[in-house]
Input
Amino acid sequence: MTLQQLEYFRVLARVQHYTKASEILLISQPSLSYSISQLEKELGVPLFQKEGKKIKLSHYGEHFLSYAEKSLDLLYEGKRSLKALVDPETVKVNLGFIYSISSNFIPQMINEFYKEPSNRKIKFNFVQNLSDCLITDLKNGKLDLLIIAKPDKGLSYVQIFRQKLVLIASKNHPFSSKKNISISELNGVPFVLLNKNSALRQMCDDMFENLNIKPNVVFEAEECNAVISFVSLNFGVSIIPEKLAKNENISEIKISDESLNRPIYMCWNKDKKMDSTLNAVFNFIMDNYSLNK
Output
């Protein structure tokens, strides 16, 4: 049994899909299948079972997963602790966050963090991605903390701020002259939205459904900068966090519906022990931003 086999098993157990797991691990699907089959051969039990074209953990796999995760997490912490003993400045906090807070909250938070002299030796590795990808990386030990809009039930989390949402439209759009707009006015209006993997898109879809509004979705994009570009060309309007559209061809319009904002959370793996470096960052965010005090 190798550490590589255990890591492959953990990722496959999380996503329960060979193609997705091989993409995450950056290996071929046959290589992943062979590694898992060799692990099953050594353990003498099937770790997965097929359900049509899908797979799921077997009874044996569910039992073994907790041991594999604990072992990998413990080794990861041991490696990190050794690095800290040899040279504390080589230890980096791996911080993941969604695109929409990369240009405002993250720089401001890091600037405040470094105002404390004892924090200046702490380095960061920043990762921007979609929430689902970030959550997978946190569970796999590649990230230490997340700042996202939709936490996973398997993680610990705390709300740190609320992000106000606005409607954006091209300067050439009829809405651009409005100071305020109600969601009820958007029925049938051409929209440029994030794709369905985005937490913000899911929030918008739920809101539209609850209000019986049917936006005309003409384009979908992976992140907010692409959405802003399409809106600036007057392909449609969109809903994004305020002060994100730094484009002279864009108008921000306040949405009169008071509830249109979304909570942003810090998430962490409750089963992972924090070293002093990670703990310093965690405590700073909790002390200065947590809304759950």
